[in-house]
Design a protein that fits this description.
234 residues; 7 helices; six-stranded mixed sheet; alpha/beta; four-stranded antiparallel sheet
């Protein structure tokens, strides 16, 4: 990976409250006063039972969901208070999202899959092909294939990581990034996340159940019953 890059700002969540109605109509607090300040340059893992609100936390941190109470700030700006259009622009410039299921288009080439993030901002994907090729080569992905046919799940996740890095975001949010990978591919992706944090100074937050990814994280938080607790490490 490349050398350390400047940290653009600190992401901070203060007193986040998100509630949803359960099947009986009772309001349940998915996030109940969560405060969180992941450190740039460290891989932060968030773990907890299924349905505990881990993905909701990432959605709030990325500005996809507005909290009922509390706020997310970045570099002194209250992201939660921005209009939807401004949050979308902030997300493009600031956040790289990585998903368990990749969200790739099999009929497109690796390069096209990486550059397609430009479509949503009406930018020229072709103008970003050199950047896409650079990222794919850096991550060890074949750049000249016409489709993703024959790509392993580990290769697909590396394509998805390249797409998340297209606009060089200072923050990476990963939702179960190793859950659908075998052991070797999962360890490879874990090493990439560690490098993005420690070598490049990015803020990297990974929601995960993977014990191997949790083991290499610099900081671990447990989310349960709407509350976030920092785990004490030996």
């Amino acid at each position: 990976m490349t050398g350390r890059k400047p940290t653009a700002g600190v992401l901070t969540a203060e007193g986040l409250v998100v509630r949803y109605a359960d099947s009986g109509g009772t309001m349940v607090s998915v996030l109940d006063g969560v405060s969180f300040a992941p450190v740039p340059g460290a891989l932060v893992a968030v773990t907890g039972p299924s349905g505990s609100g881990k993905s909701t936390l990432l959605n709030v941190l990325s500005g996809l969901v507005r909290p009922e109470a509390g706020q997310v700030t970045f570099a002194g700006s209250n992201v939660s208070a921005l209009s939807e259009t401004r949050r979308d622009r902030w997300r493009r410039d600031t956040i790289g999202l990585i998903f368990q299921s990749f969200h790739l288009i099999d009929e497109l080439s690796p390069r096209q899959n990486v550059a397609c993030a430009a479509w949503f901002d009406r930018l020229s994907a072709k103008a970003l092909y050199p950047r896409a090729d650079e990222l794919l080569a850096r991550l060890g992905v074949p750049t000249r294939r016409k489709t993703l046919k024959g790509f392993s799940r580990g290769e697909r996740q590396r394509v998805a990581i390249a797409r998340a890095l297209l606009f060089d975001p200072p923050i990476i949010l990963a939702d179960e990034p190793t859950a659908s990978l075998d052991g070797a591919a999962g360890r490879e992706v874990g090493a990439l996340l560690v490098s993005l944090a420690r070598d490049e100074g990015r803020t990297v937050v990974a929601v995960t159940h993977d014990p191997e990814l949790i083991a290499v994280a610099d900081v671990v938080h447990d989310l349960d019953h709407g509350r976030l607790h920092r785990r004490q490490r030996p």
